[in-house]
């Protein structure tokens, strides 16, 4: 197992981009402490939206290096070695924010699942149709698996037809698991589930690495990434307990210290021995991302709750799905930039300067024309289903004549 080979290799190889390092989706979010605060969950948690923006930029910067083979600025080597882990930050954000935004999902999963499908599927299906229109026909079974979001369970198909779409194949099946996990309402219960999920992810990665040498499946399978989601659910249960209490500030400080301290250690050469079989370093990054979610949910930083960060966070799904194809399309322009500046920080920054504006335009259009209408359609379907349900009978009333 090579250091830094965390799940992005399959999309890169499928696109002909060659070498890869660390893996590179998204979610929606929204506040609470205890059962009695479900009605208080109005709107988003701004710190989480800002973290989505950060995750999207991490993945963009990583792929701007990995796809056209641009050297990163010498002062920022982590772009090449670790920014692909932005996808695992996305996984953590999905779990935390969905637990926040769907307090009834454990008892009534229907509306939550409808919202998820209409939030994620329309843009992904549109991108799939685009790929099918410009590429070779992959076969009916492959297309059916893509539209049903079960391609993650078929080794060889896990990368998805959409470049970098493997993460959607991980997230969509997790959405089915979330209502079951949310039945664990205590911190102790969720801590037990977190320990079990982490052990399962580590053991599955070890087994798959041995059983499928040279394959990307050990990095892209749902089971090997489950730890990132469940660690964030543990952070959410802690958030519920401390939010609005005298312990809130202390909890935010401890979460910040854990995220920054452990993150700095994992980015340093001291953590190199952890990048062995099963990637224990990746499991520890799951702790970092869960702590980041808890910290920013309790005490959002100014930078992550500013208007620009919120705008980017709301459109991070479109940014994610469009960025890979845009970078592929701009490779001739990147080659001319390298021919002018040579490899190095100047060329990388120039490439970023010509990539970001069209990407933001595409993201704005994708959000406006596909994501928002999809979400609105999901809400209408939920309202229609609710209107068809019979009203509950009052006390002392019974059905029938």
Automatic annotation (TrEMBL):
Residues 47-356 form the Acyltransferase domain. Keywords: Membrane, Transmembrane, Transmembrane helix. One of its GO terms (biological process) is polysaccharide biosynthetic process. Residues 15-38 are annotated as: Disordered. Pfam families: Acyl_transf_3. It comes from the Bacteria. GO terms for molecular function: acyltransferase activity, transferring groups other than amino-acyl groups. InterPro entries: Acyl_transf_3_dom, Acyltransferase_3. Residues 15-24 have a biased composition (Low complexity). The chain crosses the membrane at residues 51-72, 78-101, 122-140, 160-182, 189-208, 220-239, 251-270, 282-298, 319-339, 345-370. GO terms for cellular component: membrane. PANTHER family: ACETYLTRANSFERASE, ACYL_TRANSF_3 DOMAIN-CONTAINING PROTEIN. This is Acyltransferase 3 domain-containing protein. It comes from Roseicella frigidaeris.
């Amino acid at each position: 197992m090579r250091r830094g080979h965390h799940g992005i290799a399959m999309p890169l190889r499928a696109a002909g981009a060659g070498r890869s390092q660390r893996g590179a989706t998204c979610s929606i979010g929204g506040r609470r402490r205890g059962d009695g605060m479900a009605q208080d969950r109005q709107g988003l948690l701004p710190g989480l939206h800002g973290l989505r923006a950060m995750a999207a930029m991490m993945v963009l910067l990583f792929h701007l290096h990995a796809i056209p083979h641009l050297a990163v600025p010498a002062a920022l080597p982590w772009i090449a070695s670790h920014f692909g882990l932005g996808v695992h930050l996305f996984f953590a954000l999905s779990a935390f924010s969905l637990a926040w935004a769907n307090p009834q999902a454990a008892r009534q999963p229907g509306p939550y699942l409808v919202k998820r499908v209409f939030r994620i599927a329309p843009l992904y299906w549109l991108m799939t149709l685009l790929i099918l229109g410009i590429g070779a026909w992959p076969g009916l079974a492959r297309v059916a698996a893509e539209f049903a979001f079960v391609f993650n369970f078929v080794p060889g198909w896990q990368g998805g037809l959409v470049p970098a779409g493997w993460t959607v194949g991980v997230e969509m099946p997790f959405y089915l698991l979330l209502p079951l996990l949310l039945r664990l309402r205590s911190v102790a219960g969720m801590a037990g589930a977190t320990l079990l999920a982490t052990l399962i992810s580590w053991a599955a990665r070890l087994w798959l690495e041995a059983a499928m040498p040279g394959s990307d499946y050990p990095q892209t399978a749902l089971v090997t990434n489950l730890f990132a989601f469940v660690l964030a659910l543990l952070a959410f249960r802690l958030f519920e307990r401390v939010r609005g209490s005298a312990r809130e500030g202390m909890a935010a400080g401890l979460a910040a210290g854990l995220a920054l301290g452990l993150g700095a250690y994992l980015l340093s050469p001291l953590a190199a021995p952890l990048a062995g079989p099963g990637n224990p370093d990746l499991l520890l990054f799951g702790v970092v991302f869960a702590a980041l979610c808890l910290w920013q949910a309790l005490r959002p930083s100014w930078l992550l709750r500013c208007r620009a960060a919120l705008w980017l966070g709301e459109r991070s799904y479109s940014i994610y799905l469009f960025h890979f194809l845009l970078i592929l399309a701009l490779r001739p322009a990147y080659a001319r930039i390298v021919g002018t500046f040579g490899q190095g920080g100047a060329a990388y920054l120039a490439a970023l300067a010509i990539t970001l504006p069209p990407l933001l335009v595409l993201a704005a259009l994708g959000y406006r024309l596909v994501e928002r209408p999809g979400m609105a359609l999901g809400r209408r379907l939920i309202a229609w289903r609710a209107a068809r349900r019979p009203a509950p009978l009052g006390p002392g009333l019974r059905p029938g004549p």
